[in-house]
Amino acid sequence: MKGLAMLKIGEIGWIEKERPACGPRDAIVRPLALAPCTSDVHTVWEGAIGERRNLILGHEALGIVDEVGDEVKDFKPGDRVIVPAITPDWETEAAQRGFPSQTGGPLGGWKFSNTKDGVFAEYFHVNLADYNLAHLPEGMSLEAGVMLPDMLSTGFMGAENARIGFGSTVAVLGIGPVGLSAVAGARLRGAGRIFAVGTRPAAVKVAKEYGATDIISYREGSTVDQILDKTGGAGVDAVIVAGGGPEVMMDAINVAKPGSVISNINYFGSGIGDQDIIPLPRVGWGYGMADKNIVTGLCPGGRVRMERLADVVMCGRMDPSLMATHVFKGFDRLKDALLLMKEKPRDLIKPVVIVEE
Ligand code: NDP
Ligand code: ZN
Description:
Its cofactor is Zn(2+). The protein is α/β, with parallel strands linked by helices.
């Protein structure tokens, strides 16, 4: 079978591999719709998680089940499915403690395009099919559905971890597709004022649609000064970090009120200087004592999460397809889509590849 792979750090290309084998509780799926992620860009072009040779990329997919193992109960060949980006081992200790994305060590639930071949292939393997696949609802568009496995799941987690309550003032730093999903998540959780920080015009438009009340350009002055100015010096109850380099954590902490949560969902692909540091502001952090709480998380995966996100969309609470700014048709266009994600033109939010209608 054919797949789009990371050949080594800095290089991608099409390769041929054996179709994966199916275990008794697993499924083999072929893609219906795929989307490249900024994480693929960090992984390949920044070498963020280290060297990977001939590893098939991609972790955002809708698919059609091709084969299931003998012990799989709820899925059969031909079923149209949502495939979560994160596919935990649900019987592990970390999962039982409530951290399924971290099974088998930090980030261990992230298998596709990290520790095994990803979904940018003619066929891919899904562990524990009954736990890690969800049925694609009848009537959900592929452009909307393909945002669930990672964008909605991660962005909404950003809002959940930020402990947003009714009327909370929230700042979302970064409004790519992850930050935009966080804006939508913040609104759904009852936020009052939502500051959305970013500049790409397409994203600014969708941010307003998803509930942002104030748009802040980090290019036109300090993010912190602009938000403090608009809040009478008070700052915000919750910060969701969804873009920028390591220095963005300085802004996040400096704009947060005491008692707030700084919810990081950013993937820091590289650090500052030789020692790879993510800096915190000593004074802004109250010398380490200001009750400014940093929380981090990897995208939640699994079946129930996907079913719940699907309900959010099918009940009309938000429309994720607004983020699909560039739609490619055909598996062969995958490389173009990934290169576009790397290039990040000003009119881009998220490229999507429709493999089969
Ligand atoms: P994008 O590159 O599309 O968006 C990044 C956003 O950050 C843009 O809006 C950009 O602004 C903005 N930005 C850049 N610099 C700053 C700054 N200094 N201050 C504030 N905002 C800034 O990324 P994605 O939305 O696709 O992904 C966001 C991050 O989430 C990535 O690191 C990705 O790898 C990570 N991720 C994490 C996951 C997890 O499980 N935790 C899962 C999936 C993704 P502009 O409008 O000017 O471009
Ligand atoms: Zn992703």
